[in-house]
Amino acid sequence: MASEAPLGKRLNIENINPHVRTAKYAVRGELAVKSEEYRATLAKGDPHDLPFNQIISANIGNPQQLDQQPITFFRQVLSILENPVLLEKEDVLINHLGYKPDVLERAKWLLKKVGSVGAYSASNGVPAIRQSIAEFLERRDGFPANPADIYMSAGASSGVNTLLHIICANDKTGILVPIPQYPLYTASLSVLNATCVEYHLDESKNWGTDLAVIKQAHEKAKADGVDVRAIVIINPGNPTGASLPEEDIRAVIDYARQERLVILADEVYQTNVFVGEFISFKRMLRQLQKENPGAYDQVELASLHSISKGMVGECGHRGGYFELVGFDPAVQAEIYKFVSIMLCAPVIGQCLVDLMVNPPKLGEPSYELYQKEYDAIFNGLKERATALHKAFEQMEGVECGSPQGSMYLFPTITLSKKAADAAAAEGRTPDEFYCMQLLEATGVCVVPGSGFGQKDGSLHFRTTFLAPGTEWVGSIVKFHKEFMDKYRD
């Protein structure tokens, strides 16, 4: 007797985790998928149907995809860590391959501390590397750091995931998240089935924080029965590029103290600052504690950093860390347990973190080349940001604040009713429609503002300024004029 036919696949779109289904991540959404399809078409050498000959992936902060070269010192050290037998030919490395003696010294030191980059480390990271980070933090902020409070992670995203898993107890747990925001936060909260409490940044003040807006969002959430436990700050900002002044940081810390909110300070763009200076939340908290003994002792702060941004741009190596300040030791023990479930962060990424926080110093053999490469990357980013901003200034219906930091600009665009109607006919928001038309006409992939959150009635898009050259900027200007003329009311 024949057995009955199976009913179909066990998993389908209706029975998988619904919280994953509802999560959105626009940075790698429909536009990014479409751009990769175009890239594949171009790679086949059959671009006859496309009005462009290259794809500019301005949708994601992925520097080395867009021709940013790795720092020589970092990669030379890594090459030895991955293949220690190279140390048997030190003369060849130095005399024929351009390695400096301090490259070999650093590699030997790391190998001594790590053993093998193919082996697991301690769950919270290699002790010697956490010590290096603590020393870096003390140099940066002027206040000591404890290696026991530092946890290595697979990029800052992994650290955010860990912290949100610890903080979010149920669907009534609320996290204050800036809008616009990097969609990691809203997507992660969707997956955790926790509540995102949105607070809007002030575009008229270079996307600064507005304490009145934070209070209003917080009070409304509490009135709705939400247990608001933490506030996320992205500084310098993503997608806005804003760099927060001291008064904003002090105000947020003071509010967190009053309302017993954990501060999650996403500081991965701390070296990408073009205007003013980067001020860490750790430094400001310690300063407030010094000025007001005892008043800020209960404030809980978690700050995150990564090798993916800055001048390092080593996104694929997945290295980062977070530092905890003021956390209950019993909670820290649970955080350690949580990171232990994932065994450890990639050890080669941990080694890169050590190189980032402790690069060659003045007088060391590798310093001159390191500083030359670092400055070239920084100045290149600043020049392209300025060129892109100037282009936006001449485009009809586009407004954009001066570039302050990070790797992004987030201009406002004003589109006609005719354009909005055309977008609705395709089932898209006007900014999604604009960005898709831009991609199809130029090969430039940006992200609509709706992917990050924006005030009702406003339209934006986010673009990186990582791509080399300026020809692609000219193609945006040309497209925009044609688009505005085509959809003029």
TrEMBL record:
Key word Transferase present: yes
Membrane-traversing stretches: none
Pfam short name (any one): Aminotran_1_2
Alphabetical list of InterPro entries matching this protein: ALAT1/2-like, Aminotransferase_I/II_large, PyrdxlP-dep_Trfase, PyrdxlP-dep_Trfase_major, PyrdxlP-dep_Trfase_small
Keywords: Aminotransferase, Pyridoxal phosphate, Transferase
Cofactor(s) for this UniProt protein: pyridoxal 5'-phosphate
GO molecular function: pyridoxal phosphate binding; transaminase activity
Keyword flag 4Fe-4S: no
Record domain Aminotransferase class I/classII large: where: 103-470
Complexes and interactors: Homodimer.
Family: Belongs to the class-I pyridoxal-phosphate-dependent aminotransferase family. Alanine aminotransferase subfamily.
Entry protein name: Glutamate pyruvate transaminase
Source organism (scientific name): Podospora fimiseda
